[in-house]
UniProtKB/TrEMBL annotation, chain A:
Gene3D superfamilies per UniProt: SGNH hydrolase
SUPFAM superfamilies: SGNH hydrolase
Name of this protein: SGNH hydrolase-type esterase domain-containing protein
Top-level taxon of origin: Bacteria
Organism: Filomicrobium insigne
UniProtKB/TrEMBL annotation, chain B:
Ranges for domain Carbamoyltransferase: 5-332
Family matches, as PANTHER family: NODULATION PROTEIN U
Source organism (scientific name): Filomicrobium insigne
Lineage: Bacteria, Pseudomonadati, Pseudomonadota, Alphaproteobacteria, Hyphomicrobiales
UniProt feature coiled coil, ranges: none
Protein name: Carbamoyltransferase
Family: Belongs to the NodU/CmcH family.
Domain Carbamoyltransferase C-terminal: 391-557
């Protein structure tokens, strides 16, 4: 008992010692020895991937029949020695090749083909994909080779190595690994004490965020090096050659930041005001066609944000392209894609990871298929974009054929020590059927919209879908429109059941679609569909969202959230506006007088300012705003409210605001979720109702 | 206008409630919104709901109260958690006296003064201020909050005085959880299973169990720490405890032997013995007729029944949300009192229907575009027809998802988000277990009975609207689905004032069958939170095998399931199995001291 009292007394003293925020991180010291090794730090179980974490880790338990070997979802059948797809892993079937059994190796040479969703043929899977294309290309230039498709969507580096080791059971003659998009460092807080303290310190400094990102890039490079070496070791243990296919990303046609939002880092009080000024000037100049002026202005913004903001880099690229500076624009876009932002994990290979694959891959004796190089050779000088890609990193049919032609060259060299002509291989690669290609574009349209891409690119995919295969335009697109326009998840709708009768649609919508958590913005999706197919605009929006049918609309309500995914990066009870102008579309049954109630603030505002409220382009009011919540109402005159779709915009004032970076440091040191981006305003309520 | 918000979070089930002008107008657990069972994150969804339900905005909030004192808690967390931290550095972030405040600022947006209310004061207030008693003794018992694990107090008018406490690591909650873990059940979740298992055994190990605790005269008791291990981080009992009982710990999910049943009976009896002893002490200190109880241990309805029947008090009020979620209520009430708000209602809490409700239109918007529309009947013009049709289905042996009005606050479904069935059918227990619950077959379901006829069927002389005590079944009807092996049942009594539609249904079922009782269990699948909104109800209905869903004015009968859904069910089943395995592999079955 005496011991208990002493223990309590000591605990109380220690608690006293760490009650201050500055001394709390002392606990960090105590755990210093426990930080994970580099392989374990490789962590893709964040953001969009976390839902699959347990499914993948579930393998590690080795629950299969006693002594049975397994390669991913395929388990060895003792009687035949074949590997049979296990129903226990039905939750992962849609993330893997649609193959019931992997037969025993025959006379043909065998290639084990591993990788991530890009290697899977995301959007085409399971009917068409890189492995199938590679097999046909190889057959066209030499002896027939069997390609065993082990690529798996959402595969991270740790699991990739596990799969590669397991593939030994299939007795391959070569290993092809097409991966790198999911290789990224885990969250900052897992680093060692030294790194941890330095990371925290950087958060509060000018230019610190930029330095911090460089550190995270270096950590990703370490993980990449570790992974490449492990892959090489696995191949070496099997005594077979390793071919690494280095991915390329969509540079030209992908926005890092969802459209309409900005990712402006927290900066000093003066820098934030200055950044908003120069960025706004740059945008105005660009809109006015004065691209040189715009380039100068946006360059000033980049000097302030240290290249940590995709919004400024992408504006720079835009105005450079307008001036024909393709190479500079491409470099700016790649810089933008290299930004590390823990809150929006997006697959796509970092430049540093690509460098590691090139360098270490060669060091360990692997053949490296350098896709950026292959594409450059094949497609000429154009910036990789919609010609090769369906989204941030997934390939279209042309992209797949060229990528696999480059891979086939390496396989031919590794297995037969001969060479093959790239162009000939490209031509030998099969194309998907028009129907398959149409579905891929249709799903890509949905995916792009859900990740906040613009109407233009989304509509492009929808139009392509219908031109590839007209029945898609006549039947499937109206079904998609219907499935996503209601206040309930598509899964619960009849139209969803119709859509997933198609195998490609079912693979995407019932695989990734059920667990994915991009930015769900159904209004943008519907808008893009209507832009491509104006006749669908006649189908009214769900009456449950129409003012006049209902009395009141909560504009902060998410359209709907997936049933099986309650996780969000931030659990906020309010909307944080990362943008200078926040847009809210709504539908009114008729031209009517409406009342808008706004509860808003500008966090850290040094002085009050005015939110300018615009309805359908015209200013309809101002709302005073300060750093504390303020509840206000304004009336929208009926002459301003249209029947049908209306656009409400709130323009936040550029008032000086307190530098919040020191609080960021404190929060980092206590392990809290970090948001390193500027909130230009907060909305706790935004409600619109018929005025009485 | 005076608006007080109460928050509990960062430990077990997080929750938010709101008291406006002295009246509790809204309360909800965050897990219902996020669909993460036992979600302990800051309750941002529940907070938004409460504001909206009360018709106020964040700018109107007078004060926000948090249900414990994080600064006080840190020392206790260090006491118990430090060894764990050394093994799992990520856990260090759970020790942070500033975290509650930071997250209330960051996630809820609340920027004014926060009222911190001690954990057990929150529990005490959640019972006393909602008991309707002008004066009462107060007894709180849980696992642990800051340091206190048991408190003795007294409430008079608006004043609560907690005059004695038992301090961690000595804790009746942890004692019970330790045996729960030893018996192979999940700590902090499955203590009620031990209670349910107890009647199958005899308390033959009572003496041995009591050797684990030195129960002193007065209010204090001490756990014999050589039998417990709250520091190792991977289990709660020591090797000594296994030696003491001469059996190894039970492997989870394995067959239950007589030893396990006798152990359950013994620990339950031990708890009752100690509670009765301590209640007698409390009464001796301040003799009065009224007792208020809260804290997780107060959810042990078998013990509550004993306390009332065999203890010195005439009346007992247990806060229906007795565990930490209910701490939000107490915290808000304390903030009210501290701000001199003399409008704080002193009426007895009559019901727990404090959560969101949904209109017929809300339901229609979910039902109409779905494939279920073809088998949906709309009774909005004929509410009596709805009751009649539901009663007929129940009499036919159908299992029904019952979704009506505002959601319950607290762990029990009480006729707003319930699964209901005919309690007379012997097969019903297995059937419901197979359809949705997939739980151990040894536990019976609970009955809901018409208050006007309760005495004909149960040995109870007072209303029991919250299913917080057990009593003997004395019915002339055979009620196998709701009667425990010891002839007891965990009764909810229903009258027309608190839940009109449920009451009407019981009347209609009684007319049809002569049985004024329904089997009542919560509307959720195993491992899921109870349904909150029509979307959740439809989905749970779709992927389970419940026969019919009665949601507001709609009745939806089961028909063939769309193919895609069948496949998703299989996928979800596979995923769930893996999640369980990953959780079992990665997490020790211990009470989280952080
Ligand atoms: Fe508690």
């Amino acid at each position: 008992m005496g011991e208990q009292i002493t223990r309590k007394e000591l605990a109380t003293r220690l608690a006293e010692a760490i009650k201050d925020r500055a001394t709390l991180p002392l606990l960090q010291l105590l755990c210093d020895a426990q930080v994970e090794g580099v392989g374990e730090v490789a962590d893709i179980w964040t953001g969009p991937f976390s839902s699959l974490r347990d499914d993948i880790l579930g393998f590690a338990g080795g629950e299969g029949e006693a002594g049975a070997r397994a390669v991913g979802i395929w388990e060895e059948e003792p009687t035949t020695g074949e590997f049979v797809r296990s129903r226990r892993h039905i939750d992962l079937w849609r993330f893997c090749a649609n193959v019931d059994r992997i037969r025993k190796k025959g006379n043909r040479k065998r290639v084990a083909f591993l990788g991530e969703s890009v290697a899977r043929g995301f959007f085409f899977s399971p009917q068409y994909g890189p492995a199938q294309v590679l097999e046909k290309q190889l057959a066209a230039v030499g002896p027939s080779v069997e390609v065993v498709d082990l690529a798996q969507s959402n595969c991270g580096p740790w699991w990739l190595v596990e799969m590669t080791r397991a593939a030994a059971a299939l007795q391959p003659d070569a290993i092809v690994v097409f991966a790198g998009n999911n290789w990224r460092a885990g969250s900052l807080s897992r680093a060692s004490t030294d790194a941890f303290v330095q990371d925290g310190g950087l958060l509060a400094e000018d230019g610190g965020l930029s330095a911090l990102m460089a550190r995270q890039q270096r950590r990703a490079a370490e993980i990449a090096e570790h992974t490449v070496r492990e892959l090489a070791k696995a191949a070496h243990d099997m005594g077979v050659p390793l071919i690494l296919v280095l991915p390329e990303i969509n540079v030209a046609d992908w926005l890092s930041c969802p459209i309409g939002t900005l990712d402006v880092p927290l900066m000093s009080e003066l820098d934030t005001v200055a950044w908003v000024d120069v960025f706004s000037e740059a945008r105005e100049a660009a809109d006015a066609g004065d691209f040189r002026e715009a380039e100068d202005r946006v360059q000033e913004a980049i000097n302030l944000d240290g290249g940590t903001c995709s919004a400024s880099l992408e504006l720079l690229a835009h105005v450079q392209l307008k001036q024909g500076k393709t190479r500079e624009a491409s470099a700016a876009l790649r810089r933008s894609r290299d930004i590390v932002d823990e809150t929006r994990v997006l697959p796509g290979i970092f430049s540093v990871v690509a460098e590691v694959i090139r360098k270490v891959g060669r060091e360990v004796g692997a053949l490296v298929v350098d896709l950026p190089h292959v594409y450059h050779q094949h497609f000429g000088n154009s910036v990789p974009g919609r010609g090769q890609f369906l989204d941030y990193c997934h390939l279209n049919a042309e992209g797949i054929r060229v990528a696999m032609a480059g891979t086939a060259q390496a396989v031919v060299q590794a297995l037969f020590h001969s060479t093959a002509d790239l162009q000939r291989l490209v031509e030998a690669g099969p194309s998907p059927s028009p129907e398959q290609e149409g579905w891929a574009h249709l799903l890509a349209g949905i995916h792009n919209a859900h990740w906040g891409q613009g109407t233009e690119i989304c509509s492009f995919h929808f139009k392509r879908a219908a031109s590839c295969y007209p029945p898609i335009g006549e039947i499937s697109i109206p079904l998609v429109y219907d499935a996503f326009r209601h206040g309930v998840p598509p899964l619960l709708l009849s139209s969803f059941g119709e859509l997933v009768k198609n195998q490609i649609a079912s693979t995407y919508l019932m695989g990734y679609g059920l667990i994915g958590r991009g930015l769900i913005r159904e209004h943008d999706l519907l808008k893009s569909i209507v832009a491509a197919f104006p006749s669908l605009g006649n189908i009214s929006s769900d009456p449950d969202f129409v003012l006049g049918e209902i009395d009141e609309l909560d504009l902060l309500d998410a359209h709907w959230l997936p049933l099986m995914d309650g996780n969000r990066w931030y659990r906020r009870a309010f909307k944080a506006a990362y943008e200078l102008e926040s847009a809210f579309p709504f539908v009114s049954a008729r031209s009517q007088k409406l009342e808008l109630s706004i509860v808003s603030r500008v966090p850290g505002a040094r002085q009050s300012g005015d939110i300018i409220v615009k309805l359908n382009g015209a200013q309809v009011g101002r709302v005073s705003v300060q750093d504390q919540w303020c509840d206000q109402r304004i009336v929208l005159d009926s002459s301003r409210v249209k029947q049908g779709l209306n656009s409400l915009r709130l323009i936040w004032p550029n008032v000086p605001r307190a530098d919040l970076r020191s609080s960021l440091k404190v929060r980092f040191e206590t392990g809290q979720q970090l948001d390193t981006r500027t909130h230009f305003g907060h909305l706790h309520e935004l409600r619109i109702s018929a005025a009485t | 206008m005076a608006v007080f918000v109460g928050i509990s979070a960062h430990y077990h089930d997080s929750a938010c409630c709101l008291i406006k002008d002295g009246h509790l107008v809204a309360a909800a657990e965050e897990e219902r919104f996020t669909r993460i069972k036992h979600d302990n994150g800051i309750p941002s969804n529940a907070f938004r709901y409460c504001l909206r339900e009360a018709g106020v905005t964040i700018a109107d909030v007078t004060s926000l109260a948090y249900y414990e004192n994080p600064a006080k808690k840190v020392a206790r967390q260090l006491w118990a958690g430090l060894p764990g931290i050394l093994n799992n550095p990520k856990q260090r972030f759970r020790i942070d006296p500033g975290r509650a405040q930071d997250e209330i600022r960051d996630c809820l947006g609340y920027d004014r003064e926060i009222e911190f209310v001690d954990h057990h004061l929150s529990h005490a207030a959640s019972a006393f201020y909602f008991s309707g008693f002008d004066e009462a003794d107060i007894f709180t018992v849980d696992g642990v909050g800051e340091w206190a694990t048991t408190t003795y107090g007294r409430g008079v008018d608006r004043k609560i005085d907690l005059f004695e406490e038992v301090s961690f690591p000595h804790s009746l909650g942890l004692f019970y959880s330790t045996i729960t873990a030893y018996l192979g059940f999940e700590v902090n979740d499955a203590e009620y299973k031990v209670m349910g298992l107890a009647p199958y055994g005899s308390p033959r190990y009572l003496d041995k169990v009591l050797q684990l605790i030195d129960c002193w005269d007065g209010g204090q008791y001490r756990l014999n720490m050589e039998y417990f291990d709250f520091l190792g981080g991977d289990r709660m009992y020591s090797d000594r405890l296994c030696e003491h009982f001469g059996e190894p710990p039970r492997v989870p999910e394995s067959e239950l032997a007589q030893f396990h049943k006798d152990m359950a009976a013994s620990v339950q009896r031990a708890l009752e013995v100690i509670l009765l002893d301590k209640v007698a002490y409390l009464h001796a200190r301040h003799p009065t007729e009224n007792l208020c109880m809260a804290g997780g241990v107060a959810l042990n309805c078998v013990a509550n029944g004993k306390v009332l029947r065999e203890g010195p008090f005439k009346r007992l009020f247990v806060q229906p949300a007795a565990s930490d979620a209910g701490g939000a209520l107490g915290a808000a009430a304390v903030a009210c009192v501290r701000h001199g708000e003399d409008r704080l209602s002193r009426e007895r809490q009559k019901h727990v229907y404090l959560g969101p409700k949904f209109s017929a239109r809300d339901v229609a918007r979910v039902v109409n575009p779905s494939p279920l529309k073809q088998c949906a009947l709309d009774y909005s013009e004929d509410p009596e027809g709805l009751i009649q049709a539901t009663a007929e289905r129940l009499a036919d042996g159908k299992v029904i998802g019952w979704f009506q009005g505002r959601m319950e606050f607290g762990p029990r479904a009480l006729g707003a988000r319930s699964i209901i069935a005919d309690p007379r059918r012997p097969e019903m227990r297995d059937r419901i277990n197979a359809l949705v619950k997939m739980r151990e077959a040894f536990r019976p379901f609970a009955p809901a009975v018409l208050e006007s006829k309760m005495a004909e069927h149960f040995e109870i002389d007072h209303s029991s609207p919250f299913m917080l005590e057990t009593c003997r079944v004395v019915s002339s009807l055979a009620l196998p689905a709701i009667t425990h092996v010891d002839q007891s049942a965990r009764v909810q009594t229903v009258n027309e004032h608190t839940n009109k539609r449920f009451h009407d249904l019981l009347i209609a079922f009684d007319k049809l069958t002569g049985c004024p009782i329904l089997l009542n269990t919560s509307f959720n699948l195993r491992g899921d939170a109870i349904v909150l909104e029509p979307i959740h109800a439809i989905w749970t209905f779709a992927i389970s095998n419940i026969d019919a869903l009665v949601m507001e004015d709609f009745i939806i009968d089961r028909t063939e399931r769309p193919e895609a859904w069948s496949e998703i069910i299989e996928m979800m089943g596979a995923r769930l199995k893996k999640k369980r395995r990953a959780a079992d592999a990665g997490r020790a079955n211990v009470y989280s001291f952080l």
